[in-house]
Design brief:
Length: 264
């Protein structure tokens, strides 16, 4: 019996999120169904996070224990043969026995796509938000720059657990113009519920001159309330989950209890 780590990609359009639910289609549900056909006897796979309904991924991380006596590429091929077309295993590796995709993660990176045109594009609409009028690039870039660092982001989301901390650290955040639209990327140690979609929505308001940078700054610094709203889930993709390098893991094993993990 060994623990295995999967890198999963999926089109979230036809899923009711990642987490298994009764009587509805989820990513976790179809992955576990495929594993059971390979004699997996676990109760639940572990994951790096629970993406919402409609959210996509190219770098979701899952882990499970399995008695597999064949090469790793054969496990990847077997799973991909059993999974539906909107889910794929991009990579399989053997992990430490105590590896946990969520609690061992140092950082997560998300990408959000917008396209700016008056007429909708049915193909792009599956993975991007149609924003019109278009966006002013300089103010977008300036707004993203305000996010970097450690802040109380309670104006932009809620903690996973009641009364949990709303302090998060954003390592990088920025906008890039691409294909008659804009792409937002953000990397942080963790994110509040709906935080990325809320940040995108508000920055789009700024780019359309419907919200000021000073109000956005006040929400970051003093948790000043802002207009309600979320960017649609279909534009959001979980790109990558980052973990300590092997040499960092070895160093951490010698740390005293309560020490802080290194930043990515």
């Amino acid at each position: 019996m060994a623990r295995y780590q999967l890198i999963l990609a999926y089109d979230g359009t036809q899923f009711q999120g990642f987490q298994r639910q009764a009587y509805t289609r989820t990513v976790q549900g179809v992955v576990e169904a495929a594993l059971r056909q390979l004699s997996w006897e676990g109760r639940s796979i572990l994951s790096a996070g629970r993406t919402d309904t409609g959210v996509h991924a190219v770098g979701q991380v899952a882990a499970f224990d399995l008695d597999w006596r064949h090469p790793l590429p054969e496990l990847q091929n077997a799973l991909n043969a059993l999974l539906p077309l909107d889910v794929a295993v991009r990579e399989v590796r053997e992990a430490a026995a105590d590896f946990h995709p969520r609690y061992d993660a140092l950082a997560r990176r998300y990408r959000y796509r917008c396209y700016c045109q008056g007429v909708r594009d049915p193909l792009r609409e599956r993975i991007a938000w149609k924003v019109w009028p278009g966006l002013e690039g300089d103010t977008l870039v300036e707004a993203a720059g305000l996010l970097q660092g450690s802040h109380d982001f309670s104006a932009f989301g809620s903690p996973p657990k009641p009364h949990g901390s709303t302090l998060r650290t954003v390592y990088t955040a920025g906008w890039m113009q691409q294909d008659s639209g804009w792409v937002f990327e953000i990397q942080g140690n963790a994110f509040l519920y709906h935080m990325v979609r809320r940040l995108v929505y508000l920055q789009v308001l700024i780019g359309q001159e419907r919200l000021t940078l000073s109000d956005f700054q006040a929400a970051i610094d003093r948790q000043q309330p802002l207009p309600p709203g979320l960017a649609p889930a279909r534009g959001l993709t979980l790109v990558e989950v980052l973990y300590p390098a092997p040499e960092q893991e070895e160093q951490q094993s010698n740390f005293v209890e309560g020490s802080v993990k290194p930043s990515p």
